[in-house]
Design brief:
CATH topology of the largest domain: Creatine Amidinohydrolase
Number of domains: 2
Family: Belongs to the peptidase M24B family.
Bound molecules: glycine, manganese (II) ion
Protein name: Xaa-Pro aminopeptidase
Organism: Aeriscardovia aeriphila
Shape: globular
Strand content: 5-15%
Strand order of the largest sheet: 6-5-4-1-7
Mean pLDDT: 95
Largest sheet: 5 strands, mixed
InterPro entries: Aminopep_P_N, Creatin/AminoP/Spt16_N, Creatinase/aminopeptidase-like, Pept_M24, X-Pro_dipept-like
Radius of gyration: 27 Å
EC number: 3.4.11.9
Distance between the termini: 77 Å
Length: 518
């Protein structure tokens, strides 16, 4: 049969190469392994490698005698053979200290040891990674995912060892290590995996467990969830390096907002003005950081009360208030989460200023309520009381402040349905797998970083508010660190938020962009 016809019998999923006539002769394959000058990637220890040993020690001591499996995950398919940019799983990034796009298919294993190390470690951490597929190997040309012909030189086993300070091995040795001595006798090893990260590794772990007699999937999954939960609760307390990553993410975010303000005149009156501003922010995220930490929200005018507005397809008009919720993720993968609301014209109208000042006041009240030993509900109640008082003063609240604040009331939540604070770090909604008792019920301690983000959201068709409020949404969101001396605003030093300061910031950026300022 002619090759053209025989290839039609390939399954549809294998037809991606129909677009290319790949050379496949043994002569060609041999030819491709010769005549290249050797290149060795440079590697040096990452700053994070000074901090991961303390994180690993706590993890090790929490799970004595168990083998812990923490995969980086694999790239998600965008369509057929095109993937989304890879971002490692958060638990993997936390315990290896690897950021950027390191490393698809890698797996960190904490292998239990008979004897504790001198530092108290009960496990040997081992990082399994793909070897370099350089020109010596057939994969150099044949592997589109790891071959250096396609991907460029990437760190290999030795390089990842230097970068992370961890013992590193070839990922092809993973399966045999995972299965070693797994069983249900007292001296046997039990396995736990961060099961959300890499379906193939999760399947492998589960098949080893089932083979060893652990046949109850629900029990196995509950054990896995405990590992994930432990990691999320450990991440609530940021070390010095994490705090510096957060600081640089916030600083870069300031530059992203600056770029938005410099492009405001190019967006104003344009049909796709919100997209112009999104692009202005996101471009800085790739220049100064790894990426954006979440989809940038650019909500002008009556888009702002739509809390998850991310289509950013609408116009930006001079009379609008413009709500931007955006955060740059550092190269170490820590993200800022900042919202500012601007008058597009550069000057708040009297109504805009009145509403803005109410939100600003509520945020300050939330911050005043934060203290070591306090809880998230302190922030919530302080912000809600302040907002209720403003709504009552404007005659909008249909009941008294006390009645609205009671559990049976809550009428004010019509204009503020979302949460007012959350942990922040490697994930924008960080530590999500933590227990309720440790998250909402946990008390503030040094090292915690979280947002305070009150707002007021008046939908354009809300007949219960004055007409002049309709179609305005305002949020002010900042990032707070708890220190031994109490809470500090991490973001206010970089991004102004008092109304006069916002106007001055807008004028300054317009001037720097060479635009006329009245
Ligand atoms: N940007 C998501 C949030 O503020 O929670
Ligand atoms: Mn937030
Ligand atoms: Mn936000």
């Amino acid at each position: 049969m002619a090759e053209n016809t025989s290839k039609d019998n390939l399954p549809v999923s294998e037809r991606v190469n129909n677009r290319s006539l790949r050379p496949n002769s043994s002569t060609f394959k041999e030819f491709m392994t010769q005549g290249w000058q050797a290149e060795t990637p440079q590697a040096s220890p990452l700053e994070s490698s000074k901090y991961t040993p303390a994180r690993l020690l706590k993890l090790s001591q929490a799970f004595p005698g168990e083998r812990l499996v923490i995969p980086a995950g694999v790239a998600k398919v965008r369509n057929n053979d095109c993937d989304f940019r890879f971002r490692p799983d958060t638990t993997f990034a936390y315990y290896t200290g690897l950021g950027e796009d390191y490393e698809p298919g890698a797996v960190l294993v904490l292998d239990p040891q008979e004897q504790a190390s001198s530092t108290g470690m009960l496990h040997q951490p081992i990082l399994f990674v793909h070897a370099r597929y350089d020109y010596h190997t057939p994969e150099f040309f044949r592997s589109a995912s790891y071959g250096e012909y396609w991907t460029g030189a990437r760190p290999g086993i030795a390089e990842f060892g230097v970068m992370t300070g961890l013992e590193s091995r070839d990922v092809r040795e993973l399966a045999s290590l995972l299965a070693k001595n797994v069983g249900s006798e007292a001296h046997d090893v039990k396995l736990r995996v961060v099961k959300e990260a890499d379906p193939q590794v999760t399947e492998l772990v589960e098949s080893i467990r089932v083979h060893a007699g652990f046949t109850d999937h629900a029990t196995n999954q509950a054990a896995d969830d405990e590992l994930h939960q432990f990691a999320a609760e450990a991440r609530m307390f940021k070390d010095e390096w994490e705090i510096s990553e957060m600081d640089s993410a916030i600083h870069a975010t300031r530059h992203g907002f600056d770029n938005i303000l410099r492009h405001l005149d190019k967006a104003e009156g344009k049909e796709n003005g919100e997209r112009i501003l999104e692009a202005a922010f996101d471009s800085i995220s790739r220049i100064e950081g790894n990426d954006v930490g979440y989809g940038t929200i650019v909500a002008s005018g009556d888009d702002a009360p739509t809390l998850h507005w991310m289509r950013n397809t609408h116009a930006v008009q001079s009379q609008d208030m413009l709500l931007i919720d955006a955060g740059i993720e550092s190269k170490g993968l820590y993200t800022a989460d900042i919202t500012r609301t601007f008058p597009v014209s550069g000057k708040f109208s009297p109504v805009q200023r009145k509403l803005y000042e109410a939100v600003y006041k509520a945020q300050l009240a939330g911050f005043e309520a934060v203290h070591i030993g306090g809880t998230y509900s302190d922030i919530h109640h302080a912000c809600m009381r302040s907002l209720c008082e403003s709504l009552a003063e404007w005659g909008v609240l249909p009941v008294s402040v006390e009645e609205a604040l009671s559990p049976e009331g809550q009428q004010h939540r019509r204009w503020h349905a979302c949460g007012v604070a959350h942990h922040l770090g490697l994930d924008v909604h960080d530590c999500a797998e933590a227990r309720f008792s440790e998250y909402q019920g946990g008390t503030f301690k040094p090292g915690m970083i979280f947002t305070i983000e009150p707002g007021l959201y008046f939908r354009r068709n809300d007949l219960l508010v004055p007409e002049e409020f309709r179609g305005i949404g305002i949020r002010i969101e900042d990032d707070v660190l708890i220190t031994e001396d109490g809470p500090v605003w991490m973001s206010k030093k970089y991004l102004p938020s008092a109304p006069d300061d916002v106007e001055a910031w807008m004028a300054e950026q317009r001037k720097l962009a060479g635009q006329d300022v009245d």
